[in-house]
Amino acid sequence: MSPIHSIFSTVVNVLNENKIDYLLIGGHVVNYYEYARFTSDIDFMMVAHDENTFIQAMKNAGFTSYDNQPLVIFFQKPDVPIRVDFLKIDSNTFFKLMKSAVTATVLGCQVKIPSLHDLLAMKFHSLAQSNLRRLKDLDDIVGLSLKHKIDVETVLHPLATRFATEQIYQLVCTAMQSGKNPS
Q1: For 162-172, what is each residue's pLDDT tens digit?
Q2: DSSP state letters, 68-98
């Protein structure tokens, strides 16, 4: 079993054994939706109030190196180069996302992932929060939209209006009109 498979399987088992609700997010979900891109970490989303139980469970599973920040917890096993990130969000937002979540097999494990629509919304939100520093999110929006033939005006524009800016929407449109990703 490869290191990433082993880490992923361990984390999913810890989450399931401790009955912690979660969503897989990030690059592995982008890859699941058939837009291939490199990712060197594993990203999850969880309800913020579950963090204390979860931190202890992860420590018990060997993830003794961790950094608990206000919005995210970073975990890593000593001497293993794969980081596991947990974005902490409020329960209302989390359970809205769970209502439309999809069950998927990723790296050999069954997990819940955001719907494609919700993933695109999360990517727009990330771009808006990062002042366009996270161009991989722009690349993901364009790549996923082209791959799945997402309508720019009826789907992407409302998402951009709600979760980002008109400037970001225009960047997406320009990239999509060229028929290629911006990176």
Answers
A1: 999 999 999 99
A2: E-SSEEEEE-TT---EEEEEEE-HHHHHHHH
